[in-house]
């Protein structure tokens, strides 16, 4: 049987064969069983927001054209979209709030076991927020930064969120103001958006969409806080080397898989695993403990600790089917409940850790900030115990893994580029753009979506863009896909880059004494804030708006509500944003027009919904070229 229609990844294909042979069910089987999927839901035309429903509006005009309350198609679609964006905002922000509150408690001396590892980043964030730093010690500053971050949730200043303004060029911030899309606080906007989409509330689709953008910008703030504060706690990423794919599992080690998004948990787990290596060896695991990651927790640990990536979203079940995962420790987000069914067939311990994420039948080890060290010890020892129950006959680790480079925080990049231009490291990029070596920059974000073969769209869009001299940066599960495909390596430059991009990389390598990979891995999904920091630095250096830059975004396999949220703030920031799967807005031509066309007139950014990866790349390149031309014209007009 060929599994190419399910996954482009050879390791996944191998495991899918095994699953088929053994009659084990995967996400792909459940997707097939779900066909045909509901047309009303797929187009955004199903309203379940009151108990008179569900109401379905007939897009062909043969059935009802209004819901029971009289709501029209455009309001239903817009309301559903806003709720999707808010789901993303709540997810990223709840994650960020945990880190912010922990930072505050640590600074207050209420919690031990965590400390500020990166004082330089603390100072950078304090300066960014305009806090007075003179004469203050680390603890005082930590307190202030943490208070400021927590304040962005509750809007306690009664002002705009302080983490937003310094992240974008002034002119963009003014545009946000004009459009009235700056919330007073993250919690405020979640509250308001759920309210405005309730029965009998906002029915104006344009007003609703702007309400959604307000929530999306709050999501961006949540992402920024998540990144900044995690860096302060655990260190700003520096360039690291590691590996990706199922082949990183080690037959002779306790394989402890961390899955989810919280570095607060996974950093403790890896620290404890390193401390308990000897216990694992005593239990017979020659190579000790092998901590590997799935989804964004994997990216967080890769960036800061060099831990290998074992799987991205779609292959999380397959990691267990190798029979070599002794424990899978999950925290928040992107965790399939089906993991329990798979672990039932193996010795693998599925451990949930968060009070608001439990799975029936899974072992729950509550992870609390106040008892983090003990909790992590219990988790690691549970994995070591499980290793003793591993059945060697059921171990099938696919022989597929690829080396990779990661850790490209803006700080790491600027450190490197300062060897070329100490005063203005950002000019290394802007000069290459001006010379035409770099035609534009693409930010890749997002997931796997079972509606498209795993990783295929990611890889095809990226290869096409690289061939056309577009510099690519990536976060989240798409970065993992690139890792598996060898695109996070310098060798990929020779293979896939166009002539201009090759020139840029080879000149950089000569000057830096270090080769850079074709695609720069910037971290987890909250770390899309790093890409914005880079974009804003470029825009400010050139004295233009971020929406003027030849900068685009692409989420070829978007799946989660978080991806919709990120896409929406990318559009608000002025980026043409490609989505490679259908988005449930097509039930309203008005909402579709606003999102895919009219948004460009107002915000410069807009959605490009395109399933064909080649065509998607062409559209992104056309947009990049248009922007380059406009920039050139503006520069000429300035000279004249
Ligand atoms: Ni992003 Fe990360 Fe992956 Fe998608 Fe899920 S892990 S926060 S949502 S599936 S990229």
From TrEMBL:
One matching Pfam family: Prismane
Reaction catalyzed: CO + 2 oxidized [2Fe-2S]-[ferredoxin] + H2O = 2 reduced [2Fe-2S]-[ferredoxin] + CO2 + 2 H(+)
Cofactor names: [4Fe-4S] cluster
UniProt-annotated binding residues for [4Fe-4S] cluster 2: 47, 50, 55, 69
Annotated Gene3D superfamilies: 1.20.1270.30, 3.40.50.2030
The keyword tRNA processing is annotated on this UniProt entry: no
SUPFAM superfamilies in the record: Prismane protein-like
Sequence positions that bind [Ni-4Fe-4S] cluster: 261, 296, 334, 447, 477, 525
Keywords: 4Fe-4S, Iron, Iron-sulfur, Metal-binding, Nickel, Oxidoreductase
Entry keyword Iron-sulfur: yes
Binding positions ([4Fe-4S] cluster 1): 38, 46
EC numbers: 1.2.7.4
BP term (GO), one: generation of precursor metabolites and energy
Any one Gene Ontology molecular-function term assigned to this protein's record: hydroxylamine reductase activity
NCBIfam families: CO_DH_cata
Protein's recorded name: Carbon monoxide dehydrogenase
């Amino acid at each position: 049987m060929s599994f190419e229609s399910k996954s482009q990844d050879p390791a996944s294909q191998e495991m899918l064969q095994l699953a088929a042979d053994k009659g084990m069910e995967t996400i792909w089987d459940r997707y097939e069983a779900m066909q045909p999927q509901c047309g009303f839901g797929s187009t955004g035309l199903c309203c379940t927001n009151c108990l008179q429903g569900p109401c379905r509006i007939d897009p062909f005009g043969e059935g009802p054209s209004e819901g029971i309350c009289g709501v029209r198609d455009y309001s239903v679609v817009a309301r559903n979209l806003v709720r999707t964006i808010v789901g993303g905002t709540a997810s990223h922000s709840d994650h960020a709030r945990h880190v912010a509150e922990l930072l505050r408690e640590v600074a207050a001396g209420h919690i031990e076991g965590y400390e500020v590892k990166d004082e330089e980043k603390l100072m950078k964030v304090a300066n960014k927020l305009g806090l007075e730093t003179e004469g203050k010690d680390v603890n005082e500053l930590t307190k202030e930064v943490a208070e400021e971050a927590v304040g962005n949730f509750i809007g306690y200043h009664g002002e705009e969120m302080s983490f937003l303004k310094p992240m974008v060029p002034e002119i963009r911030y003014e545009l946000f103001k004009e459009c009235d899309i700056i919330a007073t606080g993250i919690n405020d906007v979640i509250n308001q958006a759920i309210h405005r989409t309730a029965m009998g509330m906002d029915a104006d689709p344009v007003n609703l969409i702007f309400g959604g953008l307000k929530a999306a910008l709050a999501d961006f703030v949540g992402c920024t806080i998540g990144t900044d504060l995690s860096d302060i706690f655990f260190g700003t990423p520096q360039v690291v080397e590691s590996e990706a794919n199922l082949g990183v599992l080690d037959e002779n080690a306790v394989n402890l898989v961390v899955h989810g998004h919280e570095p607060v948990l996974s950093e403790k787990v890896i620290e404890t695993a390193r401390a308990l290596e000897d216990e694992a060896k005593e239990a017979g695991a020659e190579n000790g403990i092998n901590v590997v990651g799935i989804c964004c927790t994997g990216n967080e640990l890769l960036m800061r600790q060099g831990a290998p990536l074992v799987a991205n979203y779609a292959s999380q079940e397959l990691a267990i089917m190798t029979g070599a995962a002794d424990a899978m420790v999950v925290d928040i987000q992107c965790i399939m409940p089906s993991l329990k069914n798979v672990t039932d067939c193996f010795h693998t311990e599925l451990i949930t850790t968060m009070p608001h994420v439990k799975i029936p039948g899974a072992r729950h080890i509550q992870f609390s900030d106040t008892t983090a060290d003990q909790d992590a010890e219990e988790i690691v020892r549970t994995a070591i115990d499980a290793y003793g129950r591993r059945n060697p006959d059921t171990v099938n680790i696919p022989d597929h893994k690829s080396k990779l480079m990661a850790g490209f925080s803006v700080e790491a990049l600027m450190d490197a580029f300062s060897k070329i231009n100490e005063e203005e490291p950002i000019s290394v990029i802007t000069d290459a753009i001006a010379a035409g070596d770099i035609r534009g920059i693409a930010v890749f974000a997002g997931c796997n979506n079972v509606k498209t073969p795993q990783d295929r769209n990611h890889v095809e869009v990226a290869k096409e863009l690289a061939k056309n001299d577009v510099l690519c940066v990536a976060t989240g599960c798409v970065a993992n896909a690139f890792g598996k495909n060898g695109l996070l390596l310098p060798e990929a430059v020779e293979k896939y880059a166009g002539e201009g991009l090759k020139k840029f990389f080879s000149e950089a390598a000569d000057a830096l004494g270090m080769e850079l990979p074709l695609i720069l891995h910037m971290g987890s999904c909250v770390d899309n804030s790093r890409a914005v920091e880079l974009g804003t630095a470029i825009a400010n250096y050139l004295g233009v708006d971020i929406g003027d830059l030849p900068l685009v975004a692409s989420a070829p396999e978007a799946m989660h509500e978080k991806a919709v949220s990120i896409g929406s703030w990318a559009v608000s920031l002025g980026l043409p944003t490609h989505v490679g799967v259908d988005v449930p807005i097509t039930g309203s031509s008005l909402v579709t027009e606003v999102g895919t066309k009219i948004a460009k007139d107002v915000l410069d950014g807009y959605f490009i919904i395109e399933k064909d990866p080649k065509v998607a790349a062409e559209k992104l390149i056309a947009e990049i070229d248009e922007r380059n031309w406009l920039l050139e014209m503006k520069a000429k007009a300035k000279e004249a």
